[in-house]
Write a structure and sequence with these properties.
The chain has about 260 residues and is of the alpha/beta class. The chain is built from eight helices and seven strands. The relative contact order is 0.14. The structure holds nicotinamide-adenine-dinucleotide (NAD).
C-alpha cells in the first residue's frame, strides 16, 4: 500500500526521536511537507534528509507542553503554509514513579506534555483541519488500558488522551480523529526502565511476553499513522488502534 500526501502539510510533535522521527520521515517519503517539531532543537538540527526532499522538511523547536509555544507554532504554520492537513500529537516522556512517590513536578510535566498539550494543539489546529478536511492522530499507549507498575500518572494521561479523541469526533465531526495505542516500541523512551546491558536484558525478557516475540519498531507505529491519515481510512474516525504485537490479548488471557 503506497500512500500519497503530495501538497499536504503535516505537523508532528516530538519528531526528533523514535516514533515521531519515523512518522515524520514516512510522511516526507510520501510527498508531504513535514513540520517536524520537538523541544530538543539540537536533536532536530542533527537530522539529515535527502537533498531532493529538503524543501519539504521544516523544523521548529516547540515545547508541546507549553500553551504559548503551541499557539505560536500553529499560527506560524498558518502564516507560512496557509494550511494543515494532519496533526500528529506524538511528543512524550515517561517519569516512572509509584503513586506513593509521585512528585508534583512529575505529575505536572507528564500532564502538560501528554494530555494538556495535545488538547491545546487540537484546539488551535482545528480551524485549519476543518478547512482542509484533515485529521488528527493522537499517540496514546496500551498503558491507557492495562495496569503497569510505576505508570499511574503516565497511564492516566494516556487514558485521558484516548477519551479526548472521542470528544474530538463528537464536537468536530468534519475532522477524522483517531488514537493509536502502541505497546513496547524500541525507542529511547524505554530508558525509563534502565540503561545499557540492564536495559537490553529487560528488552529481551519483555519480548518473550509479546505474542509476536519482538518489541515494536518505530516504523510499525508510523505505518499505522500514515494509514489512518490516508484515503484508505476515509471512513475511520474515533478508532482506538492497538499496535502492540498482541500484548493486550495476552493480558486478558491471564485474567
Ligand atoms: N516507545 C514505546 O514503547 C511507547 C509505547 C507507548 C506509547 N509511546 C508514546 O509514543 C510517543 C513517542 O515516544 P517514543 O517512544 O518515540 O520516545 P522518544 O523518547 O524516542 O521520543 C520522544 C520525543 O518527544 C520529545 N519531547 C519530550 N518532551 C517534549 C516536549 N515537551 N515538547 C516537544 N517534544 C518533547 C523528545 O525530545 C523526543 O524527541 C510518546 O507519546 C510515548 O508516550 C511510546
Amino acid at each position: 500500500m503506497a500512500f500519497e500526501f503530495d501538497g499536504k502539510v503535516v505537523l508532528v510533535t516530538g519528531a526528533a526521536s523514535g516514533i515521531g522521527l519515523a512518522i515524520a520521515r514516512q510522511f516526507l517519503g510520501a510527498g508531504a511537507t513535514v513540520v517536524a517539531t520537538d523541544i530538543d532543537a539540537a536533536a532536530l538540527a542533527a537530522i539529515e534528509v535527502e537533498p531532493d526532499v529538503a524543501a519539504r522538511w521544516v523544523t521548529r523547536q516547540l515545547d508541546a507542553g507549553s500553551a504559548p509555544a503551541i499557539g505560536e507554532g500553529i499560527a506560524w504554520i498558518e502564516l507560512q503554509h496557509g494550511r494543515l492537513d494532519a496533526l500528529i500529537n506524538n511528543a512524550g516522556l515517561a517519569r516512572l514513579q509509584s503513586i506513593a512517590e509521585l512528585s508534583e513536578d512529575a505529575i505536572d510535566l507528564q500532564f502538560n506534555v501528554l494530555l494538556k498539550g495535545p488538547m491545546l494543539a487540537a484546539r488551535a489546529a482545528l480551524p485549519m483541519l476543518e478547512r482542509s478536511g484533515g485529521c488528527i492522530v493522537n499517540i496514546a499507549s496500551i498503558a491507557a488500558v492495562i495496569q503497569a507498575a510505576g505508570h499511574a500518572c503516565y497511564s492516566a494521561c494516556k487514558a485521558g488522551l484516548v477519551k479526548f479523541t472521542h470528544d474530538l469526533v463528537k464536537e468536530h465531526p468534519g475532522v477524522r480523529s483517531n488514537v493509536i495505542l502502541p505497546g513496547f516500541i524500541d525507542t529511547p523512551i524505554l530508558r525509563a526502565y534502565g540503561e545499557g546491558e540492564a536495559l537490553e536484558t529487560i528488552k529481551r525478557e519483555l519480548a518473550t511476553h509479546i505474542p509476536l516475540r519482538r518489541l515494536g519498531r518505530a516504523d510499525d507505529i508510523a505505518d499505522a499513522v500514515l494509514y489512518l491519515c490516508s484515503p484508505y481510512a476515509s471512513y475511520i474516525s474515533g478508532a482506538e488502534l492497538v499496535v502492540d504485537g498482541g500484548v493486550i490479548s495476552t493480558t486478558l488471557e491471564n485474567m
